[in-house]
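User: Please run a holo structure prediction.
Assistant: Happy to. Please share the sequence and the ligand.
User: Here you go; the ligand is glyoxylic acid.
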Amino acid sequence: MKPSVFVAIPMFEEVLDHLRQHFEVVDNQADTLFTPAQLAEKLQGHAGAITTGTERIDAALLAACPQLKVVANMAVGFNNFDVPAMTAAGVQATNTPDVLTETTADFGFALLMATARRVTESEHFLRAGQWTKWRYDMFAGAEVHGSTLGIIGMGRIGQGIARRAAHGFGMQVTYHNRSRLSAELEVQCQARYVSKTELLQQADHVMLVVPYSAESHHTIGSAELALMKPTATLVNIARGGIVDDAALAQALQEGRIASAGLDVFEGEPQVHPELLKCGNVVLTPHIASATVQTRKAMAQLAADNLVAYLTRGQALTPLNSVQGRA
Ligand code: GLV
């Protein structure tokens, strides 16, 4: 009998067809958002699951689903997984690295450009019928080319942004990361390692690409915002919770920084009401990896991880090393 898997999120039909060649598949094309108790119930009897950031996989769920052997997150970030609990339970965890790197770096740049050059703010003005004449200072923003970009979090996506900034826009790139890049990568990215304080004080634009963890919670709060230039922009394509959104809204309202571009939010899909009131923010609904090609590649990799683990015992992009459940 084929093992059975639960696809907890809506999925490309072609990927479901691929999964059906190997498994009994229960899908969620109805796009239901499950409570933890409903998810545990839905997972009964399944050996594998595909999830994304909205499904929390923790010790309680694992204890309630003894047949579950592998959970494939369709995302590079995996802060919805309690990986130590998964390892302790013998459940394989996987994510989707690499396939979204360049697309996400593109979006980081899109958000930087839109924020610095006030694209959405000026579009709202135009749509509201407020554009009556050209003015020399109308929506004058911040220069991007030739300016200084500070990147916090210099993994694959951060490096992709650095290459775009240095090679495409002649920017000076500084970065801060838990560990310093090799000399070779620093040359490739034309990026200079600095302390977080130095980065915040010197950057014209700050880009956040750091994974979420207890350590990175509120990497940017009021103390950090106070270090930034009043003309600076802040872009968060990392995770909600990396920025203290209430502190950011206050800084934006008080003109302590110029603007922000945010793709991720604390408690998303809720957005802090004070951020919604700010004109000087560009807000997007967690779409940094959203191109058709990349989302297909992520879905395919998540599916391939289930196939590889459940048929050969070896995941393609494992997050943990497990003594698998019997
Ligand atoms: C999206 O946020 C991801 O982690 O892939």
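The domain at 4-97+292-312 is CATH 3.40.50.720 (Rossmann fold).
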